[in-house]
Structures are given as C-alpha cells and as structure tokens.
Amino acid sequence: MSRRPPRGEYIETDTGNKVARKATLVGTQNIMLGGKTVIQPEVMIRGDLIRSIQSSSSSASGAAPNNTAVSIGRYCFLSRGCCLRPPGRLYKGAFTYMPLRMGDHVFVGPGSVVQAASIGSHVHIGARVAVGEFAIIKDYVRVLDGTVIPPNMVIPSFSIVAGQPARLIGEVPEGGHEAFELRDLYKTVGNNPQPAPS
Amino acid sequence: MTSYCRPAILSPKVQQGESKQSFPHCIKQPCSFPKIPQGRLLKSQRKITMSSKRHSIVPPVSQSGPKPPVQFSSSITISDSALLTGTNLIAISSESVIHPRAKLDSLAGRINIGRRCVVHERSVVGAVGTSGRITEAAVTLGDYVTVEVGASIEAGDTVIGDGTTVGVGAKVGAGAVIGKHCTLTPHTEIAAGEVVPDFTVVYSNGLRRPDRRGIAELKNKGQIRQIDVLRRMIPSNPAKFD
Asked: Where are the domains of chain A?
C-alpha cells in the first residue's frame, strides 16, 4: 500500500492557496498569490506575458526587474473556466504587456475573461463577463453576468454594472458590502471541503 | 536517491512581503513523479524540493483525434500546448502567432492562416458546427487577423478578412464572410452564412456601424510590434506538429 497520501484535486499551499491541478498556469514565476486564493479547474492565467519595457523609475535605480505579470490578493476566488491575462498596448512606440493587479476578496465567475489593468478589493465579477484591456474596477463593484466591459473603462466604487457594453445600472445598497466577503466560500472548496454555513 | 530535483533557491520576490509568496515554490510539480522516499518529508522541506526548471503548471493537452498535416512558414511562433487536430492541411503563413491552448481543427476542411495573425488562447478555429459538412477550405483567415481569447470560428468556407479582430468569446457561424478591418466586439455572434462588409464594427449584441477612424495601417503596425514581443515570450515549437 502506498504510504503517500492520495492526491487531491487541489494543491494546497502553506499560505492557504488552493490551486486545482487541472488549472493552466503559464509562467508561474510571474504570478503572485496573496494567500487563501482558490483557483478552480480549467482556469487559465497567463503569467508569461510580462512587461517588456521596464518603467523608467525602476530601471534607473538598477534594481532587479519586477516581472510580476499577475498579482492576486487574499481570498480571491477564480471560478472554473475563467481566464486572467495581463493587458497589452503600445507604450512609447513599443508593445508591452502591463501587470494585472487584483485586490482581496475578488470573485471571478465561470467563463469570464479578465484583461483589466487593476481590480480593487471586494469585487464580484459574474459569469461569462469580458473585462476589456486596461479597464480599472474600483472597490465593492458588482459586475453582472454576461457583461462586456470595454477597454479602458473605469468603474467607480460601489457601482453595479451590466450590459454590452457595460453601463452603470445601480449602486450597491448600504450594508450590501457584507455580501462581497469570500471567507466562507473559500472553505467550501479544496481537498476536504466544508459545507457552506446556512 | 534519484536526482529528480534540485532545491530551488527562494527568489527575492518571496521576501517582498510575509503573506505574499511567489507561486512556484509552494507547489509540487503535478506531473512527473518524484520518488519521494516515504512521503514523510516535512512540509517545509517539500516546499523547496522542487525543480527550479519548472515555470508553469500546464496539464497535458489531450490530443484527441488525428494529427493533421501542416504547412508552416519558418517564421511562425506556435506554442507547444496549442492543439491541432483534423485530417486536412493546416497552413500558417509567416510571422503568425498561435498562443498556448488555441485549437485549430481541420476535420471539416483546410485551415489557412494568413501572415501576422495572432490566435489567442482557448479560441477554436475550424469548430465543427451543426452542419457537419466538409468543404475545400474550412476557415480562411486573412493577414493581420486577431482571434481573441475563447472566440470560435466555425468551419465551412468561413472567411475572415485582413486586419479583422474577432473579440473575446465571439462566435462566427459556418460560411460567414467577414470583410476587411472589421471589429467584432466581445460575445458577438455572427450567424452562419452572414456577410459583414469591410470596416464594420459589430457591437452590443448585433448592432453595426461603419469604422471611419481610418486606422487600419496603424493597427497593422501595432500588430507587428505585438508579434515581436510575443515571439520572445512564447516558446515556439513548430517541430512538435510536423
């Protein structure tokens, strides 16, 4: 009998990240996970698309280049089949990808494609959403299913957006920010999941 | 003990913050099987006993179906985790880029990809639709075509004109003919057999307007720059598909 424990569906790291074995992470050395992040199967993260032009401040100081392509905060939840890729554009006459930054408690729904420049904390992105390149989503934003966020759009805090292209359709009600917490959801997946508290 | 792996030195990134941790050091490699003596290694030991060579976790792609004949230009960039299946010829012209996990399916006919095209991950070129008919040229992409993440182009004499962008998750039906320099915004669906004239923007679930910006040339130049960068970032392995 094998003395090794059976291989679970997820790889659980010391910092509490749960990464599905069936997730496709390209260029893992450029992906930063804050901890307690769930990456479900069939998620794809393009960490290989790194910045090809360093910002002038870092190159002047002579420090080691910071190649982070995708950085994700704590308690993020990447649902099945979603895709995160850094946005790319022409900058000073050359093409470069820019890092994708994501705050804490960000939920990304199944089948969504995120190419934002930055996503704040406590953001809920529904299923099959396309977030255009260099979009900026601030904190406590709810993006409904099937939304297409055009490139370069800035979504202010506490807004609810929907539509193709995305429009602001409402605001998160007072006290509604509790719903963005993902701590409970984090416990419901993994190799020994716990049932969601009712 | 087999020399399956060398201890990786923790990168400086790890020291950036206590909670932030660079990812590859915390996971064990998912495929190839290190014969760990008894599985009794401490967690901390396990963390560093990982090949420093591994830069990705990419589950193996399932090569289902026949391996198609290919005709590649020598200057293309094709990731080795791209998926090529089918029975007919797949021709890719010079300087085009095929991202990892893009799928080209020539089961229903020949696939032609023009010069300096970029086919992003998870897109399907030559998806066998409901019709299932086999034609001479299943899908023809012109030059400077961009097929974005998760887009799907059905087979059956489908033509995408030069400089056209097929947006994230868009669907182009069998036999549709898309003109030159069009933009299909994300989640657009083009019905089978539809003809979209040159310089059209299809947006908001089917609305159309002409593109009068006159930036086709500039976009092409941008595409060249993008391909220059991608060529350095995506490890190309055309030999795998021969």
From this structure: 10-187
